[in-house]
Design a protein that fits this description.
The chain contains 14 helices and twelve strands. The protein is mainly alpha-helical. The protein has one domain: Cytochrome P450 (Cytochrome p450, Orthogonal Bundle), CATH 1.10.630.10. A hairpin with an 8-residue loop joins strand 10 and strand 11. The longest helix has 32 residues.
Length: 356
């Protein structure tokens, strides 16, 4: 599905288009179907609704807004590390450490473990990229997945003995229909939150900054009036959604947009296309910070609408604000390189010169 209307329809009809039945990506996955179904993104109602509800209270806009000071401190600390440098890689030196610490603080990950968890997430989600995952998909299955389970298992054991107020502890002590989650369900719930927290904001921030550096007039609009930055965040989300697609499986024979769909068929929602649907956007391939558009970067409504929407928006706002304030003349200094993936829509390198 490549149009906004079709993606919207599939997203809201979980009875016809299942997340649980056949997996959530159109490409070969590192995790087997059983483990994908242990994440609420890979479930259908009613279990999806019950698991997701465990976290809703922690991700309300009001709760997230209360974290703005801490998020700004994290971003400022990361940018402080660039003092005295002329160049950096915006992906590795700014985006990755900032987003890893933000989601790490929510999950109860100690700061010294941010880098290893980021590496585990990158090699799992970017399993087809030889730089992010030199061992290939088989290597990720044999090495990365067991390490995720081992590291997470130690955190689970610690929370069982000493409960805390982080989201890992929420998973460990949660009850659904009177029963605690099984260990693999806790691990996969943890993985989903850490993976989404790492990749989504990092991807859109870096691509948005690249667009601003390639169009100084657009950047000048934000420098002249930083109140425009939230609108620029929405335009960045529209043009550069972190995940190119998600998949559903048809539960019955049906038809959509004149296309016959058989039970068991894969139905893939291409956000990278629907967010540039020419029937919705004038000049859809033009980056316009004044557009302030609606988009489907967080999904197209329905039960699977992104849990971390408020957090992602706040992180992006702070990242743009702090980066532009410190480095208003930042410029691209080398060839940006994209992750080799049909699922991830993100840069893996973005070399920049920090000042003119």
């Amino acid at each position: 599905m490549t149009t906004a209307d079709d993606v919207h329809e599939v997203s809201r009809d979980w009875q016809t288009y299942s997340s649980e039945r056949g997996g959530i990506t159109a490409v070969t996955a590192v995790f087997p179907l059983e483990l994908m179904r242990a994440m609420f993104i890979g479930m259908d109602p009613p279990k999806h609704d019950r698991i997701k509800a465990l976290f809703q209270a922690g991700f309300t806009p009001k709760r997230i807004a209360a974290h703005e000071g801490e998020i700004r401190r994290i971003v400022s600390d990361v940018l402080d590390r660039l003092d005295g440098r002329e160049t950096c890689d915006l992906v590795a030196d700014v985006a990755q450490p900032a987003v890893a610490r933000v989601i790490g603080s929510f999950m109860g990950i100690p700061p010294e473990d941010d880098a290893i968890w980021a590496e585990l997430m990158n090699s799992t989600l970017g399993a087809s990229d030889p730089d992010l995952n030199p061992g290939g998909i088989e290597g990720a299955i044999e090495t990365t997945v067991p390490e995720i389970f081992a590291r997470c298992g130690r955190m689970i054991a610690a929370r069982r003995e000493h409960p805390t107020d982080d989201l890992t502890s929420v998973l460990v002590h949660a009850e659904v229909d009177g029963e605690r989650l099984e260990e693999h369900e806790i691990v996969m719930g943890f993985f989903l939150l850490v993976a989404a927290g790492n990749d989504s904001t990092k991807a859109t921030y870096c691509s948005g900054m690249r667009a601003l550096m390639e169009d100084p007039d657009q950047r000048r609009l934000l420098l002249d009036d930083p109140a425009r930055i939230p609108g620029a965040v929405e335009e960045s989300l529209r043009m550069f959604p972190a995940f190119a697609h998600f998949r559903r499986t048809a539960t019955r024979d049906t038809e959509l947009h004149g296309q016959e769909i058989k039970e068991g068929d894969k139905v893939v929602m291409w956000y990278a296309s629907s967010n540039r649907d020419e029937s919705r956007y004038e000049g859809p391939d033009r980056f316009d910070v004044l557009r302030n558009p609606e988009h489907q970067a967080f999904g197209a409504g329905g039960r699977h609408f992104c849990l971390g929407t408020a957090l992602a928006r706040l992180e992006l706002k702070v990242l743009f604000e702090e980066t532009l304030a410190r480095y208003p003349e930042m410029s691209i200094s080398g060839r940006p390189r994209f992750t080799e993936s049909a699922f991830l829509n993100q840069l893996k390198t973005l070399p920049v010169r920090l000042s003119a």
